[in-house]
Amino acid sequence: MRTSFSVLSYKGKGWSPTTAAAPLSLTSLPLSHSEFSPFSLEGKTGFNNSDMAEVKPMFREVLPKQGQLSVEDITTMVLCKPKLLPLKSLTLEKLEKMQQAAQETIRQQEMAEKNSSK
């Protein structure tokens, strides 16, 4: 027993719905058992990629020339980790320290001049 489903197919000028029959299970697909069975690799000692290169896909990939590939009905919010930024940058802190040091040396020089003038 097969179930039918609707498929959009591209026929020259545009997409049109067609009805196709779907297999109920993978066992009804016309594939040889020895090619795709997980038990077919049991006896092999050296399995390599060249064995997999021989298997051809049953369906070929079809990309539309026009139109929309997919539609998402609901847009969802994505929560990201908050980025904590410092109130003052490191360079600003260094500049402030340099200014404070310069002001301190100026004060010391002024105090030294006042003491020497007395």
Automatic annotation (TrEMBL):
This is BBSome interacting protein 1. It comes from Phyllostomus discolor (pale spear-nosed bat). Pfam families: BBIP10 (PF14777). One of its GO terms (cellular component) is BBSome. The lineage of its organism: Eukaryota, Metazoa, Chordata, Craniata, Vertebrata. GO terms for biological process: cilium assembly; receptor localization to non-motile cilium.
